[in-house]
Write a structure and sequence with these properties.
Blueprint (H helix, E strand, L loop, with lengths): L2 E5 L2 E4 L4 E8 L7 E7 L5 E7 L6 E3 L7 E6 L4 E6 L8 E9 L2 E5 L3 E6 L1
Parallel strand pairs: 2-11
Antiparallel strand pairs: 1-3, 3-8, 4-5, 4-9, 5-6, 7-8, 9-10, 9-11
């Protein structure tokens, strides 16, 4: 069974930092493109960042470029998202997602990030 378990969310002041983690199991982690989506209250889910299986290729949404860094440790089956210079508009539930065949087919339950002004 594929499982993606996020952790690391919380409440932080604007300008602060958080590091999200996603522990994966049930599939060959090192062979999968994996990433992060987020959903703010009343809004659709948006792709934040993703990283290729070997880590050599990354994508960032324009809204987070220069502030967020995605990384992975294939030996630990873990995905990370380092978030710096957080803004109130970064407040959302952050989801870890797996991509297969062009589709994001598995989602974690999410972790709440709240940035106060």
């Amino acid at each position: 069974e594929v499982q993606l378990v996020e952790s690391g969310g919380g409440l932080v002041q604007a300008g602060g930092s958080l590091r999200l983690s996603c522990l994966a199991s049930g599939f060959t982690f090192g062979s999968a493109t994996i990433g992060w989506y987020r959903q703010a209250p009343g809004k659709e889910r948006d792709r934040v960042s993703c990283i290729s299986s070997g880590g050599g290729s990354t994508f960032y949404a324009d809204s987070v470029k220069g502030r967020f860094t995605i990384s992975r440790d294939n030996a630990k089956n873990t995905l990370y998202l380092q978030m710096n210079s957080l803004k109130p508009e970064d407040t959302a539930v952050y989801y870890c997602v797996r991509k297969t065949g062009g589709q994001y087919d598995y989602w974690g339950h999410g972790t709440q990030v709240t940035v106060s002004s």
